[in-house]
Structure to design on (221 residues):
């Protein structure tokens, strides 16, 4: 799994009036995950969509469901997201007082446990729970919106996190989320990224399926 770089189109940039069409496009593409952003208007200054929409997505989606929760007090909804079909559930480090307990609860509910970190959060804060984290969703923009510019400091953070994972003999995947394009994809995987989330770059392109294929080729050559 480590040598197969993964592409996760972000549904936030899909056409919600044609959601089933866009889901089928991802099903038939080389994408690996459906990346699904849930925002509550409190942890981030935006509201995306909630449980009924996630239920509709998981009904049709045929790939790994990667849910990125941008909500306060995510413990309230862990079992709900498991029941809705999430395979990976990422909570924000900044939203969890008892992160270790939250990670155990995600695993007990049958999902892989992810931790998302804001651009200002130092990766060293994850070291003591690195064995409990299946995936770190490293934000390369400030969470809340699609279509923002990639923050260059992310490369340094990937290298630092890679070292922590290596030094602890952990198998945590590094996912990069925000502003990913064909211009930075190769540099990101060379720095140590395993999964690239891409929203606007995929869905605003003329041919989203070909764009996913292109990202897959760039990252796996
Ligand atoms: O979590 C988020 C934003 O908060 C992301 O998953 C975005 O949806 C990525 O969109 P692009 O930056 O690729 O347009
Ligand atoms: Fe996301």
């Amino acid at each position: 799994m480590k040598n197969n770089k993964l592409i996760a189109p972000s549904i936030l940039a899909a056409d919600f009036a044609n959601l089933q069409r866009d889901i089928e496009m991802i099903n038939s593409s080389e994408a690996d995950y459906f990346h699904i952003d849930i925002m509550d208007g409190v942890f981030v200054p935006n509201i995306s969509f909630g449980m009924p929409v996630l239920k509709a997505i998981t009904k049709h989606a045929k790939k790994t469901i990667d849910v990125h929760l941008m909500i306060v007090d995510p413990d309230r909804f862990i079992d709900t997201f498991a029941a809705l079909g999430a395979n990976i559930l990422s909570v924000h480090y900044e939203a969890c007082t008892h992160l270790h307990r939250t990670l155990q609860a995600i695993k007990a509910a049958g999902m892989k446990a992810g931790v998302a970190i804001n651009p200002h959060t130092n990766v060293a804060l994850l070291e003591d729970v690195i064995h409990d984290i299946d995936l770190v969703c490293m934000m390369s923009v400030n969470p809340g919106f699609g279509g923002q510019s990639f923050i260059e400091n992310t490369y340094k953070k990937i290298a630092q996190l890679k070292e922590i994972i290596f030094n602890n003999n952990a198998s945590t995947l590094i996912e990069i989320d925000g502003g990913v394009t064909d211009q930075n994809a190769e540099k990101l995987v060379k720095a140590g990224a395993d999964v690239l989330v891409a929203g606007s770059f995929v869905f605003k392109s003329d041919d989203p399926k070909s764009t996913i294929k292109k990202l897959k080729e760039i990252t796996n050559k």
In short: The chain has one domain: 6-219. Residues 6-219 form a domain with the TIM Barrel fold (CATH 3.20.20.70). DSSP finds eight helices and eight strands in the chain.
